[in-house]
């Protein structure tokens, strides 16, 4: 196995900065790439990223605007929003040596193409080796070095193990698997379901309703995941159930917070990324293509598109025919 010491993280947002910190803590030589030269210079000089205010950037991390330099790495992590990942990978691709592992870390499905993030890597950088990292992990927690566990998947087991050893530390514990699709379905679906969970909280429907919604949401996630070839143990693991529990219960989650605002009838904050809102239509298209029923995700997509009121969606869900659990 080739050396995996030099790590480049593309995207100097909250997640990219947190992952750069985790890789530095694991002892790697890290470059954090910001597409904007002024932002790169500012973060480099102040050692502070306004997207993670008050958490100093590890001194060893090089912050750069030079995409060619970022491509000269043993591992590249893509940490930009799902809908921007293709553009970021395409800009990187000409500078990437053949066979470089490229780890997707966005949680979403691409609009229009319905591609998962590793498929986007396959298309935009066919000479790279795709992998995916996902799981219950707020950027703020990871950046502060609080204990976190995630799942890291690559088709090749030996590569998944090597990537885990390269990026893992006592505080940041990746578990490896070859179930790439299972890992990416969990991350994409949980964001949509977290919006529904937030609506339940914003509408003050009670803790019992929140538990019911989260559990039925998990059934949807598993149904779609299995239909797409994911393994049930992955879907019940960190990147599926684990992340669903986190994002359906914590106002730290932007998706959950969006749901709370919607449930309260408030204006949703427009400066915060909600991957679930962007992924909802693509998730439903995927579900339809696989003949999988996802009533909760369907309600979220309809509410966001203005096709259904929140009260109408709640009424629809509560009056569905009684059925066997599963
Ligand atoms: N925040 C979190 O706790 C976690 C986030 N994630 C996932 O990580 C992904 C990114 O989220 P997050 O970091 O929070 O988002 P942020 O909004 O904090 O940051 C997004 C970053 O991506 C950059 N970017 C956007 N488009 C491009 C592009 N084409 N090329 C290069 N850089 C680009 C932005 O740069 P610019 O400033 O120039 O616009 C910005 O730095 C999402 O899919 C999210 O689900 C996963 C786990 C935890
Ligand atoms: O994915 C996350 C935690 O695992 C972050 O969730 P939000 O994007 O909803 O903030």
TrEMBL record:
| Binding locations of sn-glycerol 3-phosphate | 107, 135, 137, 190, 243, 253-255
Q: What is its EC number?
A: 1.1.1.94
Active site (record annotation): 190
Q: Name one GO cellular component term.
A: cytosol
Its GO biological process annotations read:
carbohydrate metabolic process; glycerol-3-phosphate biosynthetic process; glycerol-3-phosphate catabolic process; glycerophospholipid metabolic process; phospholipid biosynthetic process
Q: What is its subcellular localisation?
A: Cytoplasm
Keyword NADP listed? The answer is yes
Residue ranges occupied by any Glycerol-3-phosphate dehydrogenase NAD-dependent N-terminal domain in the UniProt entry: 7-159
Pfam families, sorted = NAD_Gly3P_dh_C, NAD_Gly3P_dh_N
The Glycerol-3-phosphate dehydrogenase NAD-dependent C-terminal domain, residue ranges: 179-314
Q: Which reaction does it catalyse?
A: sn-glycerol 3-phosphate + NAD(+) = dihydroxyacetone phosphate + NADH + H(+); sn-glycerol 3-phosphate + NADP(+) = dihydroxyacetone phosphate + NADPH + H(+)
- Positions annotated to bind NADPH: 15, 35, 107, 139, 254, 273, 275
Q: What are the alphabetically sorted keywords of the record?
A: Cytoplasm, Lipid biosynthesis, Lipid metabolism, NAD, NADP, Nucleotide-binding, Oxidoreductase, Phospholipid biosynthesis, Phospholipid metabolism
* GO MF annotation list: glycerol-3-phosphate dehydrogenase (NAD+) activity; glycerol-3-phosphate dehydrogenase (NADP+) activity; NAD binding
Sites binding NAD(+) sit at 11-16, 139, 254, 272
**Biological pathway:** Membrane lipid metabolism; glycerophospholipid metabolism
Q: What does this protein do?
A: Catalyzes the reduction of the glycolytic intermediate dihydroxyacetone phosphate (DHAP) to sn-glycerol 3-phosphate (G3P), the key precursor for phospholipid synthesis.
Spell out the protein name for this chain: Glycerol-3-phosphate dehydrogenase [NAD(P)+]
What's the source species for this entry? Nitrobacter vulgaris
Q: Taxonomic classification, please? A: Bacteria, Pseudomonadati, Pseudomonadota, Alphaproteobacteria, Hyphomicrobiales
């Amino acid at each position: 196995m080739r050396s995996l010491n030099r790590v480049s993280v593309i995207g100097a947002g909250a997640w990219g900065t947190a992952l750069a910190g985790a890789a530095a803590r694991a002892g790697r030589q890290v470059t954090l790439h910001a597409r904007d030269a002024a932002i790169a210079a500012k973060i480099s000089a102040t050692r502070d990223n306004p997207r993670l205010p008050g958490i100093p950037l590890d001194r060893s991390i090089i912050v750069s605007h030079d995409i060619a330099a970022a491509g000269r790495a043993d591992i590249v992590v893509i940490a930009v929003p799902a809908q921007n990942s293709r553009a970021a990978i395409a800009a990187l691709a000409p500078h990437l040596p053949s066979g470089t592992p490229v780890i997707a870390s966005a949680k979403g499905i691409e609009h229009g193409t319905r591609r998962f993030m590793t498929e986007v890597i396959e298309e935009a950088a066919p000479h790279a080796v795709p992998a995916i990292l996902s799981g219950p992990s707020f950027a703020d927690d990871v950046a502060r070095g609080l204990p976190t566990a995630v799942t890291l998947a690559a088709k090749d087991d030996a590569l998944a193990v090597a990537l885990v050893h390269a990026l893992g530390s006592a505080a940041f514990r990746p578990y490896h698997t070859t179930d790439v699709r299972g890992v990416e379905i969990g991350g994409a679906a949980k964001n949509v379901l977290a919006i529904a969970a937030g609506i339940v909280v914003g509408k003050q429907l009670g803790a019992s309703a929140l538990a019911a919604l989260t559990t039925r949401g998990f059934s949807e996630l598993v149904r779609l995941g299995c239909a797409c070839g994911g393994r049930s143990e992955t879907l019940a693991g960190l990147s599926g159930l684990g992340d669903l529990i986190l994002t359906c219960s914590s106002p730290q989650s932007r998706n959950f917070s969006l749901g709370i605002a919607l449930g309260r009838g408030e204006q949703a904050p427009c400066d915060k990324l909600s991957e679930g809102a962007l992924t909802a239509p693509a998730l439903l298209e995927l579900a339809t293509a696989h003949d999988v029923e996802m009533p909760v995700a369907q309600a979220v997509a309809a509410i966001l598109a203005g096709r259904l009121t929140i009260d109408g969606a709640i009424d629809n869900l509560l009056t569905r025919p009684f059925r066997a659990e599963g």
